[in-house]
Amino acid sequence: MTIDEYIAEQSPNIQPLLQQIRATIRAAAPDATEKISWNMPTFWQGENLVHFAANKKHIGIYPGGNAVGVFAERLTDYKTSKGAIQFLLDKPIDHELIADIVRWRLSQAKR
Length: 111
Hints:
Blueprint: H1 3-8, H2 15-28, E1 33-37, E2 40-44, E3 48-54, E4 58-62, H3 65-70, E5 79-81, E6 84-88, H4 95-108
Antiparallel strand pairs: 1-2, 2-3, 3-4, 4-6, 5-6
Helix pairs in contact: 2-4
């Protein structure tokens, strides 16, 4: 499965949001490879940088546990758990925050 196929399988109202998140991640990590890992769209560069996935009421971003801690001050409006951030579908998605997290992950990745 490809990321295009993953997005195409999601409900029509979520597909544009997933495409926007994909574009945000791509812009922040232009050399990363796209793949499916753990059944989720994934950007990889030396290691998995970030996964994202559609859920019923949110889009999950999975940058790993350290990122959630590092960005804790900017994540107070979001539900988080170890390694996961939930962006609710009925609220605007902070693409700048996603880009910053991806750039930070890229700086931490093994090269």
